[in-house]
Amino acid sequence: MSNCWISYSYILWLSIVFNLHVSATTRFYDFKVQNMRITKMCKSKQIVSINQMFPGPVIYDQEDDQIIVKVTNETPYNTTLHWHGVRQKLSCWYDGPSYITQCPILSGQKFVYKFTLEKQKGTLFWHAHVSWLRGTVYGAIVVYPKMGIPSPFRNPYKEQIILLGEYWHKDVVQLEHEALESGGAPTPADAFTINGHPGPNYKCSSSNNDVYKMVVIPGKTYMLRIVNAALNSEHFFTIAHHKMTIIEADGEYTKPLVVNHLMIAPGQTINVLVTADQPVNRYSMAMGPYVSAKNISFQKLPAISYFQYTGSTRKQIVMPAHLPTVNDDLAVKTVMDGLRSLHPVMVPRKIDVNLSFTIGLNVEKCGSSNPDKNCQGPHGGVLGASVNNISFTSPTFSLLQAYYKDINGHFTRDFPDTPHKVYDYVNGAPNNIPHDTQSLVGTRTKVFEFGSRVELILQDTGTVSTENHPVHMHGYSFYVVGYGSGNYNPRTAKRNMVDPPYLNTIGVPVGGWAAIRFIADNPGVWFMHCHLEIHMSWGLSMAFIVKNGKGEMQTLPPPPGDMPTC
């Protein structure tokens, strides 16, 4: 059976890439969650993978296709898969975050995901959504436009997926457990990776040929589909001596923006055009850290791959890439300033629900009898994170099932619209650790009537440290109508109501704010969280509930019959 599924998806890929006619609109994939052994930097370890591939297989499809993915869990770990950026219109059951829309797929069990890419095209990705398994369980989703619909940009000679990641010698599930048990910061990655390869900066990687190479023809233009699948750090990306033109972000076309480098956070996807217009040689493609927080440990060595011209030789010196300094906030702002939707868009003007959420870190008081082991946060406290100073408590039962079946006791519907206290969030945040840096806890949700027009202000705070937070919303994309530094001020905030970018993950600026707008027209329970995995583990997340509207097209269907049980 699996060979038939793989063969069909391969034929589909050929038909899409070479523009052949295929009448089918349902695409089948067979994903087996399996352990595999790999060697990086002279050390071997077992990782969780899909179909013994690292990174995982690519899902190729077209706009409005239905996707069916049969997932069989052959590992001892619980698992789910999230289809990041897929808006899951009326298919919330298949969104994937564990204990939010489903119970995990247990060892030896199967679950079939079914969803439609309604009015979506571009680069998205999929990843595990249990514990930190997405450290190795991830892959790209490539959605081509419908047949006969031309791209608004020059067709590239070829396209290439670039998956940015992080790699640890330790088991990633153990890493999360150790970080939470210690109460302190997590262990930095042992390496960054590009398409699974650390590159020549890392031990054993050059001699073992663990370097990704992209071979290019002089004079040709290429499209890079860049995905940041990293766990706990944001990254700069650049190609030595080559400019990149951004044409898409989070699966939506943008006005062309020429850049020397870009910052891409975990959960974000960016498409760029690059022309091989330099002398024949090998050029570094580099991925290095962007670190906006203070006093944290991080991996400093960049991952390097080669943008390699045909005709170049190994004797030629690889041209080095120059990344911004690790804390170059201006480099991040410069790119964000230029990001615009390709055409004018219909931004919601009249707002029904105004929300203001603070996001940031906390330090809880130590309650352990073994503080040396369990309270390694600042001043002997325990690190945490929160939204509106409420740290999300992960449930042990699917919130969507509890909501749909009206089962009490798993969540409340009282998430506050605004922070409990108003203060100078950036410069005057509480920092008398741990006496005034603690959070409330709970599994609280915010409920929307169907069709509500929502504006949400996301405000970074300075408790422990200000930081750029990549906030991802499940089930929706949103217009980023404004952002800036300091505390949000409605009287002075500048807004773009003409052509704001349409994203599913927004990097809320370090010491700043972002304003987003969307229409709550997709019923279900939808997770919103920081895509830095440690922040989500600490509680920087919450959930929205969108009620049903009127009629079948505004009502969430019943759950599938093979839904995993808790």
TrEMBL record:
The transmembrane segments are 6-29
Cofactor(s) annotated in UniProt: Cu cation
- Write the record's keywords in alphabetical order, separated by commas: Apoplast, Copper, Lignin degradation, Membrane, Metal-binding, Oxidoreductase, Repeat, Secreted, Transmembrane, Transmembrane helix
Which GO BP terms apply? lignin catabolic process
Its UniProt entry gives the catalysed reaction(s) as: 4 hydroquinone + O2 = 4 benzosemiquinone + 2 H2O
Its EC number is: 1.10.3.2
SUPFAM superfamilies, alphabetized: Cupredoxins
**Gene3D superfamilies per record:** Cupredoxins - blue copper proteins
| Uppermost EC category | oxidoreductase
> Which PROSITE patterns does the entry link to?
MULTICOPPER_OXIDASE1, MULTICOPPER_OXIDASE2
Cofactor: how bound: Binds 4 Cu cations per monomer.
Q: Which GO terms describe its molecular function?
A: copper ion binding; hydroquinone:oxygen oxidoreductase activity
What residue stretches are annotated with the Plastocyanin-like domain?
Answer: 33-146, 159-311, 415-549
- Where is this gene product found? Secreted, Extracellular space, Apoplast
**Record-linked Pfam families:** Cu-oxidase, Cu-oxidase_2, Cu-oxidase_3
Q: What NCBIfam families does its record include?
A: laccase
Family label: Belongs to the multicopper oxidase family.
Note the PANTHER family from the entry. Answer: LACCASE-6, MULTI-COPPER OXIDASE
What role does this protein play? Lignin degradation and detoxification of lignin-derived products.
* The protein's name: Laccase
Q: Which organism is it from?
A: Papaver somniferum
Q: List the taxonomic lineage.
A: Eukaryota, Viridiplantae, Streptophyta, Embryophyta, Tracheophyta
